[in-house]
Amino acid sequence: MKFGLRLRGGLLATLIMFGAPVIAPVGAVFVSSSALAQTVQSISVEGNRRVEVETIRSYFKPGPGGRLDQGAIDDGLKALIETGLFQDVRINRGGGGQIVVSVVENPVIGRIAFEGNKKIKDEQLTTEVQSKARGTFSRAMVQSDTLRIAEIYRRSGRYDVRVTPEVIEQPNNRVDLIFTIEEGAKTGVKSIEFVGNVAFSSYRLRDVIKTRESNLLSFLASGDIYDPDRVEADRDLIRRFYLKNGFADVQVVAALTEYDPEKKGFNVTFKIEEGSQYRVGALDFRSSIPNFDPSSMRAYSRVNVGSLYNVESVEKSVEEMQIEASRRGYAFAVVRPGGDRNFEAHTVSVVFNIDEGPRTYIERINLRGNTRTRDYVIRREFDISEGDAYNRALVDRAERRLKNLDYFKSVKITTEPGSSSDRVVLIVDMEEKSTGDFSISGGYSTTDGALAEVSISERNLLGRGLFAKASVTYGQYARGYSLSFVEPYLLDYRVALGLDLYQRQQLSNSYISYGTKTLGFSPRLGFSLREDLALQLRYSIYQQEISLPYYLANCNNNLGTSAFNPSPAFVNANGGVPDLTSTNGLGCYSDGEASLPVRKELANGKTLTSALGYTLTYNTLDNNKNPTDGLLIDFRQDFAGVGGDVSYMKSVIDAKYYTPLVSDIVGLVRLQSGMLNKMGSDLRMLDHFQMGSNLVRGFAPNGIGPRDLNPFGTQDALGGTKYWGASLELQMPFWFLPKEVGLKGAVYADAGGLYDYQGPTSWAFNPVTGTGTNEVNAPGCIPSSINPSTAGTCTGLVYDDSKVIRSSVGVGLIWQSPFGPLRFDYAVPLSKGKYDRTQEFRFGGGTTF
Description:
The protein is 14% helix and 39% strand. It is mainly beta.
């Protein structure tokens, strides 16, 4: 549809009539200066329906003496045109020297409609366009709205969009405005290339940026949609990555984008000038503040001589030093880093200069954009408040904390001048986003079988910064539910309080003969000691019980419908030798019996465990989901016996170290160990460590360690009180596949051991008094003696507890898929115990959709 503003009038005739050598806008008519001896009241108005006469006259401003001159007429005409209220404006001379302003008003919009839009709703488009129902129709505004709608679609990756406005005239100078939209297909990024990169491969750099190439699974994500703002942000991410790795002179010269009509997508090329890689040659601290010892700041530096020059380490050092100086009473201290490059030696001499900054105070902290989140939730992330000295390091830390809350799409803190020269106003601009999640998760593993979970969570409950989650799990071998609640600021301190209520049921399967049911509650407190160090304190109380199939806990070999527990003499019918052959149909073990510790737990019924514990976590990983560099150490201890039925001390440490090697190959070293110590009461089998593929791949779940050797029983894994494990793994990409596929290969070698079972091995009973655990009448008991009926014990547990080192080598396939992380492993045991159980293939994974 063609647009144009047509102002009709006798411009040429007027110029000839008055002989005025002026050039007027097209469609506008001016009178000559000889006709300007008029006042505003001399202006008559024609053609107006909605706009009042006085409103039109008000656009003509008289000069001194209340007279209108040529400039006033000219300005009034332009002002009327700019209002957008009129589609035609003419100025002529009337009788008696009057000025006549003839107008044709723009129609009123009756309704606005959108046709053909499926991907973007009417409500969103209505808020974006400037034309409004019951507002004035303006062709210029409609043209602007057309471009705006097209831009919205382009931002969502649809560059083939076509928007056509249509105006339908209605009675009484009204129109209907219809935008017809041809959305077109998504316009994705077909290729991402890097030019000038030598130190890092293109494969590695694709990990750094957010833009992704289109592939078969792109419909599950949006990273492949071309977004110029995202591409521009990727330039900064690449630059920051190089600066972090010692390339102080790096420049990302350009990010070139080109539309390929054949591929119907964009080709993106990043042009990089790397420069040289630098190391820290020297480190110095200087201060211009009297009585301030600059060397005392050395302990807060994260920069070390000989290490790669890392801009992020420099920035974190500046922050820590400036905050420490503020704590010492130097509220206006400013730390400025400097560096001198040695181009021949490729080193940088880093100097931290500590100076007295300007004495500036914070007058106010103004919050903008938090329509849902309460003000105090935002303000508590600041370590400064109104009236405090302005400290840029603390402001930057607050901005980082607000971004990490994940409540907002964007957060930006800027400053504005205050009421005086030594006052500033902090402006916190935010754009909120949805913080609620509803997910349906599914997965399958060789350990737990098929599994499904439905959960609902809210990260910013009621806008108060609270976290709440409820989930229900139902699977082939595992079922249960959990409720979680977290208050991140307990009593206005930076201490997180968590509450967990859960119920879990593990069913018997091919790896364990028994099932367990656990109902528990656990409050916990979390402390952030440093950015890389966290502490969690917890208390756990849970009730646990064992269940067994009937045939694993009976002493009756299916004698029709009769159910009885035979006497010890009857069971031992062969001269004191237990009847295990089922020749008389009464062999307790002929149909398989669970191990003694399992049956003892069954007889004990429900057991209550009450324990205090803590976890200390050190984390320097570059990426928690897909790490390539850094160290993660977890140390956990739990002390049971604060009430309850059991007591023990359990200690576990797990350390993972990732390091990049060559050609995008990442090395992983993992060390783990655990120890269970008896404290007071005897240890249960359920409290022991159970290990298998989680320690040494190539073995079945619960496949290694001490095991019941009864050949007629289930030969349950008994677990151990001590274990250790070590793994070496190389993870490498498949260079022949697109990066966006997310596939990596792995080769590894594992070694470990589990030993020292300290659970029950016998079951005492007095058949005369009937005291004790009544094991003679308990299912599956074989007493140690028959005649006379005196106090005795059941046959002792015979088990294997050899300290054999288990080892294996294998290969794996790691897939960071849109369905969640998936891993396939094939491992071959090299050494194993005599009674260990192997499982060469293992698969596990899950998703949220």
